[in-house]
Amino acid sequence: MLNNPAYTRNLAQQSMTLLFDHLVEQAVNIRVPENSYEQNLIIRLLNYIETEYKNAALSVFIEKNSIDIYTMSRIIKKNTGMTFKDLLIQKRMKTAAFLLENTSLSIMDISFTVGYENTSYFHKIFREKFGM
């Protein structure tokens, strides 16, 4: 069957079906611990960055969630190993790279789209992140 191209697609589909069935069976055994306050806060923060990356600011997030900046910064670092700024830059750079690969937008337009008004700074950060 492996050497016959006519069966390759069918074999791949059957293998994926078996894998999916196995994963569904195993999902029943997964125990998810109850989310703590910190975990819920981090999930909200990551969602905030994901949707508001162009204009995201830690000061806005902490005001909406009634938490002081020191505590929030500590929670972010403890749970992600990164700072808010690092998380934001990571999201912006991933989005910029996606736009560069999949659109015909100019670098200046991409810079503005992901939240950088200073294109020189965008170039500097992009070069640091991707080496190009």
H/E topology pattern: HHHHHHH
Which strand-content bin applies to the residues?
Answer: under 5%
Distance from first to last alpha carbon:
45 Å
What characteristic shape results from the CA principal axes? flat
Output mean pLDDT. 86
Query: Helical region count?
Result: 7
Helix/strand structural class: mainly alpha
Got a strand count?
A: 0
Percentage of residues in helical conformation = over 70%
Count of discrete domains: 2
CATH class descriptor name of the largest domain? Mainly Alpha
Low-confidence sequence ranges: none
The profile of the biggest β sheet is: none
* CATH fold description of the largest domain: Arc Repressor Mutant, subunit A
**What would CATH call the architecture of the largest domain?**
Orthogonal Bundle
Instruction: Write the CATH homologous superfamily of the largest domain.
Output: Homeodomain-like
Give me the Rg, rounded. 21 Å
Descriptive notes:
- The chain has 132 residues and is mainly alpha-helical.
- It has 2 domains: 1-31; 37-130, Arc Repressor Mutant, subunit A.
- It contains 7 helices and no strands.
Layout of helices and strands:
Layout: H1 5-27, H2 37-52, H3 58-64, H4 69-80, H5 84-102, H6 107-113, H7 119-130
Brief overview:
The protein has seven helices and no strands.
Name a few traits of the molecule.
132 residues; mainly alpha; 2 domains; Arc Repressor Mutant, subunit A
